[in-house]
Structure formats: C-alpha cells, structure tokens
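User: tokens in, sequence out, please.
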C-alpha cells in the first residue's frame, strides 16, 4: 500500500510567509529567528538585516520562519518625555522594521518589566504604555518580555511582607498583564512572549495576561543533556497548549555546533512534537547541509504547525527510551521514539500499547518514505541519541 500521499499531506500544511497575518497572533506556534544565541550582546542593525536576507535566500522564510527577533542590548536612553530610543548600533529602528517587512518577514523586539533588562539596558518599568505605543509605531510584530531585574522588586516585597506568600507572584502577573494590556491597546497584532523561566506555572496565568506563549523552564544551552532535560520538563503541560497559546521550551540550538546532527534531529523532532515555537538561533550565513535539512524539513515543520494545535504527550518511558504521540488533523498522529542512551539498543514496540491496537499505516518523516502497514509488535534497533519520527494513520 502506498502511503506517500498522506505523508506528503503533512508538508502541504506548512504556512506561507504571510499566512499568520491573516489570523489572530500565534494561531500556530511562531517560527523565526532570534539574535541572542549567536550574537548575544554584540548584535547590530546590519546583523539583523543580514539575518532577514538569509531567511529569504536559504528558503527558511518559505518554510515558515517569518519572525526576525532582536533580543537584548538594542536599547539606548529615554528622552525628556520618557520615550525610549535605540542605541547607536541601531540608528533607525523604524527603518530596520521596514526593511524586515520588505523581505516578507515580521519584526520582533525584547524588553523587561523591570527597570533594567538582563544585560543592564533600559527596561519598561513605569513606561509600559509608552513603550507599547513606540513598538507599534516602529512596526513591531513580536515582543519577548524577560522577567530579569523585576525579580529584585519581587524579593524586596517578599522581605517586607513575609506573611504574604503569594505577593511576589501577584506582582509578577500584574507586571506582565500591564504590558499585555498595553500591547493590545495599540491595535497592532503583536505576539506577546513571556520569558520568566516557568516561575509560578505561566501556562496557567499566561492567557489571562494577554500572552500567546510562555517559557516553561530556565534557559536552554547547546547541549544534548540540557535539551533533553527541558524536553522531559514539558510532560504534563499538553493540556495548556493550543491555537493562540503555546508552551515555550526556549529557542532552537540547531546549527550552533554543540550537538551532532543526529542529536539536533532529536531536538527538532521533540520541539515539533511539543508544538513549540520554532525560533532558530544560529548563524544563518554559515549553515551546513545538515543544518538546513534539519531546520527546513517540511514534514517536521508541518507536525509543529498542524492546525489542530495539540502538544504531544509522553505515552511511556522505558529506561532510556521515551515515546511521544501528538494528534494531527485528518485522524493522523505524529509519533516520536527517542533513544536517550549513549549506545545502540534494541527495543520491541507494540502498537497496541501505544494506542494503535488495529495497527497503522506508517510514514517515516526523516527518511521521507512509506513504511507500509504495521500491526502488533515491531522490533527496532536504534543508535544512541537518535530519534524515530513517524506519521501513523489508522
């Protein structure tokens, strides 16, 4: 039986570059690029323009990566009226946003509810409405709002009122809501991304502060062990994800050099299964063929971007093996099996035990081929730190 059509149907669901503009913000997990993982505090106007160009020339834009997000260290000083201006590395933020838009892309910025950002630049404390209007005037489409120095105020409040255990968390939620409301009041669709490291279960309060996505853990690093630690931390959060509201396990590290290609495939597969925002953080001008093949696999992206908006559940964990299952449109399922050990292992896979008692037609996503119909027990051999990613249709 030839299953290629249903496998290819996965890729057909990939959004065109401007399709997000036709719906509410973050109807599917946002995709794009962020400056921090590669450039950190040295990013410039020219770097952002170059990233926009690379998203187009590499084909990443057409694969769905539409946000170009400038992270921390762009801020300059406020003028006498309190209006925030960029520093001298960004001479004209409106012109930069216009350039990004001219490339068929969207533009994102970074701030903090505190007085300072993580790197000590100007935050938005006391200027939330003013900053929101400034961002909208520049043409910003995405705001990452990082808790950072606001934690100092939370700690001070806790010290002053030790008998109120929820005070600091109410403060944090109020601070995030203030900016969320200010962004909505501009009338411009701006994706609002909370970066508060999973503090106080943001998946529960995020929608109430006007956010479309929220960090579930502390920062990722370009390490297989840290990536897997974050992936496992997503267990139990599936019920909080869906169109317009996404759990965010942090940015992609694909292409930054700290993992093998097989490990980056595990990373990309799990983020797609988890319906995570896909924000690349590598040097787009120096991508290897493996980097491109991983970041732009249309079937993998379509799993992440599936219109049903479901996040995968971990069906079982057996020693170093974990199996994840994500419902897709059309009665299909994305199924991922990860060998987290260092060595090759054999594993029996019983379809009945993972929800397919009558068997299923199987498509191998990374290989791009039909595997026929599977029923009953299957015997698999997997090298260490690898993934098998399939589409199952009963």
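Assistant: Sequence out:
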């Amino acid at each position: 039986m030839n299953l290629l059509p249903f496998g290819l149907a996965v890729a057909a669901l990939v959004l065109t570059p401007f399709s997000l503009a036709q719906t509410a913000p973050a109807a599917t997990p946002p995709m794009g690029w962020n400056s921090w993982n590669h450039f950190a505090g040295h990013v410039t106007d020219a770097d952002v323009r170059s990233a926009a160009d690379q998203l187009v020339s590499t084909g990443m834009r057409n694969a769905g990566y539409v946000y170009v997000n400038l992270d921390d260290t762009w801020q300059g000083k406020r003028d006498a009226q309190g209006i925030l201006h960029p520093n001298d590395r960004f001479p004209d933020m409106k012109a930069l946003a216009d350039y990004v838009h001219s490339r068929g892309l969207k533009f994102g910025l970074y701030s903090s509810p505190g007085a300072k950002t993580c790197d000590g630049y100007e935050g938005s404390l006391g200027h939330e409405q003013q900053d929101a209007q400034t961002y909208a005037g520049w043409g910003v489409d995405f705001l990452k709002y990082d808790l950072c120095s606001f934690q100092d105020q939370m700690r001070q409040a806790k010290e002053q009122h030790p008998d109120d255990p929820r005070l600091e968390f109410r403060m944090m939620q109020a601070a995030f809501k203030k900016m969320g409301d200010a962004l909505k009041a501009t009338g411009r669709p701006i994706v609002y991304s909370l970066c508060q490291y999973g503090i106080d279960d943001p998946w529960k309060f995020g929608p109430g502060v006007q956010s479309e996505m929220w960090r579930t853990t502390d920062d990722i690093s370009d390490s297989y062990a840290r990536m897997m630690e974050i992936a496992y931390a997503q267990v139990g959060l599936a019920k909080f994800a869906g169109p317009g509201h996404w759990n965010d396990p942090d940015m992609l590290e694909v292409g930054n050099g700290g993992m093998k290609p097989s490990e980056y495939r595990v990373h990309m597969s799990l983020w797609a299964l988890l319906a995570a925002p896909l924000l690349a953080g590598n040097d787009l001008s120096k991508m290897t063929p493996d980097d491109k093949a991983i970041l732009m696999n249309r079937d993998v992206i379509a799993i992440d971007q599936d219109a049903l908006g479901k996040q995968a559940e971990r069906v079982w964990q057996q020693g170093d093996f974990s199996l994840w299952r994500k419902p897709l449109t059309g009665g299909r399922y994305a199924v991922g099996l990860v060998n987290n050990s260092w060595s090759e292992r054999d594993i029996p896979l019983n379809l009945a035990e993972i929800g397919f008692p009558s068997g299923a037609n199987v498509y191998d996503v990374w290989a791009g081929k039909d595997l026929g119909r599977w029923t009953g027990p299957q015997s698999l051999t997997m090298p260490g730190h690898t993934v098998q990613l399939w589409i199952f249709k009963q």
